[in-house]
């Protein structure tokens, strides 16, 4: 037996491109009015589209000596548009470059913070076990 979603597509009620996006379909039979046919009411619940996260501006970028020159080199090339569409296209063009620049210059910040937290925890444990003056400096940070 076919699934209800497949039958909807087979009958041409819904384009096959939407098949994977449907979470739930509910069908209600409305009251008959002037004929022996009843109207069907379809209630569709679609999965939400994948949202591409925006670039989050990180304040430390401004303090980097190459940031302004990097943005300028990606901003200056002209587009074939004017006004707000020009701004949109330049921002759209800049976004992947900023992502690449952030990864290549700063790396994975969350990983670095995690490693630093582990190093601090290790140093604290070593100091708690032997609180002599030199012990915290003997441990190597990862």
Automatic annotation (TrEMBL):
It comes from Buddleja alternifolia. It comes from the Eukaryota. The lineage of its organism: Eukaryota, Viridiplantae, Streptophyta, Embryophyta, Tracheophyta. This is Reverse transcriptase.
């Amino acid at each position: 037996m076919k699934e209800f979603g497949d039958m909807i597509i087979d009958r041409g009620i819904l384009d096959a491109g939407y098949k994977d996006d449907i979470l739930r379909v509910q069908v209600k039979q409305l009251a008959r009015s002037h004929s022996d046919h009843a109207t069907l009411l379809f209630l569709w619940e679609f999965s939400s589209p994948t949202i591409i996260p925006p670039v989050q501006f990180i304040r430390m970028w401004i303090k980097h000596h190459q940031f302004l020159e990097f943005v300028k080199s990606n901003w200056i090339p002209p587009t074939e548009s004017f006004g707000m569409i020009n701004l949109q296209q330049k921002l759209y063009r800049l976004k992947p470059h900023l992502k690449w620049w952030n990864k290549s210059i700063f790396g994975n910040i969350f990983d670095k913070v995690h490693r630093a937290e582990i190093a601090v925890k290790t140093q604290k444990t070593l100091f708690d076990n032997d609180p002599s003056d030199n012990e915290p400096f003997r441990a190597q940070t990862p």
